[in-house]
Description:
- By secondary structure, the chain is mainly alpha-helical.
- The chain has helices spanning about 1-25, 35-45, 50-55, 60-75, 95-115, 120-140, 140-150, and strands spanning about 75-80, 85-95.
- A two-stranded antiparallel sheet has the order 1-2.
Amino acid sequence: MKDEYIHQINILQNNFNIFVAKKFENKLDNQLTAKQVLLLELIKEGVTSTKDIADKLNVSTSAVSQILNKLDDRGYIERKFNPQNRREIILYLADKAHLYFKELAVLKKQINKEIYGKLSSHDLKQLKDILEKLQVIATDSDQSNSYDKKK
């Protein structure tokens, strides 16, 4: 029975993601890959060196550099030498990335209003609680076992 619920949840989640992507795809720059957006998000959060990004994602600096080169070529990031240490390059969001994040904020508001805004407060709290549990499970395998035992 549990496997059937999981299967149904996966189908519903995929269908929801496809619907949202189709409905809002023309509202945002979709020239970026998921990995590129992830790197832009990290730079926005203050992770400003190739090494720090690689460490945070547990990937090689070479893999990060390849993605950063594409973002640089497309005008989403800028690289500047650190004035205190000329051997270090600091990553910054370029105007194009700032515009992307402004458009993304507007899109999130629209999604919140048109989709999540139609749920009751009770439903929203339940969804939030379940997503919090899933986040804990995804980040802590020991926690996963304790949730399983409770069921």
